[in-house]
Amino acid sequence: MVFILTVLHVLLFGLCAGAIISVIVFVPLGIYVIPYALWVGSQNTKGKHPELKNEKFFRTVRNATRLYKAKLSGHEPIFK
Fold this sequence. Notes:
Shape: elongated
Largest sheet: none
Number of strands: 0
Low-confidence stretches: none
């Protein structure tokens, strides 16, 4: 009985820790990507950068960093 309770406590702790870590990681990343997503949406309505329409989340974060770096340095963004 004690073993089952210990396993349940460890399982509950693992689930809670995973939920907290995912919130700590993905909420700031989501906030970081929102301006980039809006920019891509506005570019897609103009017919520019159609290749950026369906990209994975971490590629979106990488391209967001490239866009912000290009905007701060005054250059055109180059996406891969």
